[in-house]
Amino acid sequence: MQDQLIIFDTTLRDGEQAPGIALSPDDKVAIAKQLARLRVDVIEAGFAASSPGDFESVSRIAGEVAGPTIATLARTHPDDIDRAADALKAADKARIHVFISTSPIHMEQMIKMTPDEVLVAVKEGVARARTYVDDVEFSPQDATRSDPDFIIEVCRAAVAAGATTINIPDTVGYAMPDEFVELMRRVYDDVRGGNEDVIVSTHCHNDLGMAVANSLSAIHAGARQIEGAINGIGERAGNTSTEEIIMALSTRSDLFDVEIGADTTQILETSRLVSSLTGYPIQYNKAVVGKNAFAHESGIHQHGVLQNRETYEIMDPASVGHQSVLVLGKHSGRAAFADALERLGIPLEDEDFQRAFERFKELADRKGEITEQGLLAIVSEETGFNSEEMRLVALHFTGGSHDEPVATVTLDREGTEVVSTASGDGMVNAAFVALQDAYGIAATLLDYRVSPLSSGADAMAKVDVIVQVASATYSGRGVSTDVVEGSARAMIAALNKASFAHGIANGDNDG
Fold this sequence. Notes:
By secondary structure, this protein is of the alpha/beta class. It has three domains: about 5-280, TIM Barrel (Alpha-Beta Barrel), CATH 3.20.20.70; about 295-385, no CATH class; about 390-505, Double Stranded RNA Binding Domain (2-Layer Sandwich), CATH 3.30.160.270. The chain contains 16 helices and 18 strands. The strands form five sheets. It has an eight-stranded parallel beta barrel with strand order 2-3-4-5-6-7-8-9, surrounded by nine helices. Strands 13-14-15 form a three-stranded antiparallel β-sheet. Helix 2 runs parallel beside helix 3 (about 80-85), helix 7 (about 175-190) crosses helix 8 and helix 13 (about 350-365) packs across helix 14. The longest helix has 23 residues, at about 485-505.
């Protein structure tokens, strides 16, 4: 039987310590609820004693978020521990995470304590925390630059005082995998020993790019909890990426004799929410959640993926809420170009296809990536088809019978106004029905997603839709401070593509 690996997420504590991030209590609750949907095991909701705002956040998460254990950080100071316990009162499952520095430079330069004084503080702090909760974690800060013998001594003292989890932090990202494994094995053998109730944990920083590697290596040394943050955010170069750990274990289960309870399909949504609320962008080539994580531009790669996704994808994009993307660029070949046309519902005869493909390659050499809109423009130019693209002029609502909203949309088609009115089940539905009438297209809504682009009452929202017209699907995106207007703009973008493709398919062109 495999051991359970505990996923401890510290996005809301260590992650928020990244420069420039200041999450409001509402933001933190929103992220915590999404982490619960991701099914992490422990949420470190903050450092309750650090500020009134953090105390409020921890208290609200403890009372409003069900499922994971809710933890808060505390120094060995009695006031910190009392404050932590007070913030966690409403939690169904609560943990106090006690820490103190143990490296010579930290003891001498920061906390001004001798090793003996640190040892006393550990015993007293952990024992005090244990009077409030049964679940107490202890961390010797800067463990990888500490005397290993001293680490063993303080960790044994913590267990004797009631600690149930011993966490070994690579606070400054200093360790290499081999030496980190050696330290973790010592802790597992000399501290945990035969005490099966004690969990050995790790918390790694990424200063040398080793956070995920060190954390995964620690599993082989007996670690059964890994601490990380979504998108790897945190102090300096950040923390272990929670999502990378989850997917490494899911993908390479043959190497790790542990199981996890995370719902991987929630990973991308969690990543995007954290990015949106923190203001920290996700790098394009970020593992698992980056824009390019499942994107392919090379013609050879695209051909392989079109034949069988597993030729170049070791993870199913859908398993993390992502999707494969064949990026049309200078390295793309005929197979990817043809696939893109097929997905847009645009059949081209041989001569038209050749002209459009040659024009595409010419533009891609100069432009780099060719978007769907760019592809439509190329097809329009090379086949002589004139797209009658429409744009939104106005959107109004009135009450109808049984309080059903009635939407009136005014569109512009090359200087000519098109007006359509329809009722629906809610304002968004009414607008969608009116737009379909205006285009004369029957579309089935397959996917509708609203994502915040900023926080606050005047937040910008991004709306993405996918619609099906006949057997083809079309996507559209709209951005606005008004969700209904953004939804209408997204539907217009999708219907413009559908209208264009419909005209091509029916030979409605000048060539």
